[in-house]
Amino acid sequence: MVGRTCTGDQKIWAAVSDKAKNQASNCVNGHFFTWKSMRKVLREVLHVEFVGFEESRSSILWG
Q1: How many structural domains compose the chain?
Q2: Which of 7, 26, 28, 42 is most buried (most C-beta within 10 Å)?
Q3: Which domain of life is it from (predicted)?
C-alpha cells in the first residue's frame, strides 16, 4: 500500500512538473469505496428507507 505522504508527493508533482503538464493523473492509496457499498452506511446514518431502482434502457436514454 502507498502511504499518504507518497500520494501527496504524487499530487504535488502532477501539479507543478512540466512533464505532467496538460496530462490527466490519478493516484490512490489503495483504499477505495463504491457508492453501492456506501448506500447502507448512508441509510443508517440518515435514517432513511431503502427504495429500489430498476434501471431500464428507456431510463438511460430519457425516453
Answers
A1: 1
A2: 7
A3: Eukaryota
Other C-beta atoms within 10 Å of 62: how many? 5
Domain region containing 43? 4-61
Residue 63, CB half-sphere, CA atoms under 13 Å: how many?
A: 1
Longest dimension (CA), the chain: 50
pTM of this prediction? 0.38
Alpha helices in the chain (DSSP H): 4-16, 35-46, 57-61
C-alpha cell at position 48: 432513511
Q: What is the dihedral of CA 10, 14, 19, 24, to 10 degrees?
A: 110
Residue appearing with cell numbers 477505495: 32
